[in-house]
Amino acid sequence: MRTRLVYILLSLAMLLIYVCFLPSDEAEAYTVENKQVTIYEGETYPMDFFVSDADFMNLRLLSSDRSVSTPTKDGALLGLKIGDCIITISDKKGTRDEIEVKVVSKEDIHMVALTLDDGPGSHGMELMDFFDSRNVKATFFLIGADVGNYPQSVQRMVDEGHEIGNHCMNHKQLTAVKKARALEEIEDGAKAIEDVAGVPPTVFRPPYGDSTEEQRIAAGMPTVLWNIDTLDWKYKDADRVAKEIINGAKDGNIILVHEIYKTTVEGVKKAVDKLTAKGVRFVTATTLLTRDGSKVEDLIGQRLFSKRIKKK
Ligand SMILES: [Zn+2]
Asked: Where do the domains of the chain lie, and which CATH numbers do they carry?
């Protein structure tokens, strides 16, 4: 008798669980992260940059002006002609959203360089996955003594089109050690990075930003400093990191964060999503610094903080 009761109760419990977790046809939620999006003429822009949790095949996507921008079935926007239009998204549940889309000229591409110092570290893979999904190209200033600890991260940086930079062997302040020692730090760092990456670093950043002209020339590649310091290492606050990046992402700026803090990784993700929707393009330091036609050789020895170009 008791066994039977237990059996009945158990069956009822199972039924309850089944009903509660029954897959529903109406579960077609999506979240619009940005209602205003800027894209470039002649380019394709993945909509999951600003609409998350969406199954685009099951959504209705309509453009108010198909000659300006058209959504594709698999969730991308085509930038067809300079102008504005509204993309309406709706699902079977009746949830409906409007997104203002601005298509601008490729000549107006808004570029910033996001530079990540002091890695490689344990968040490298997570960052790389994110950058890959958002088409972000970043610059990683690596510490020579640490590259051997995360060879896969370093390999991915190279394979996925990021730039790797020499941040010296042991993160010593170059202006505080003997001349010969400083040059060793630079040389050993570059060699350690090349040994793991398979290619030499292409930019140099002295620890704490301090270097002499002799050291910069000895480095043999452009010395990339920054004009936006997020102070991420000091506050370790994701929202603050995001805010500093968003406020600092003016065209031509070089933004400094540190790869090794979880709060920085979170802040970077938030900021990148907001900024890509505004049409900001994240490029490597060298892409930014040579976009006006400057030659890499001519940049060696200088201290480079940003790259503004005059727009017509
Ligand atoms: Zn550093």
From this structure: 31-108 (2.60.40.1080), 110-304 (3.20.20.370)
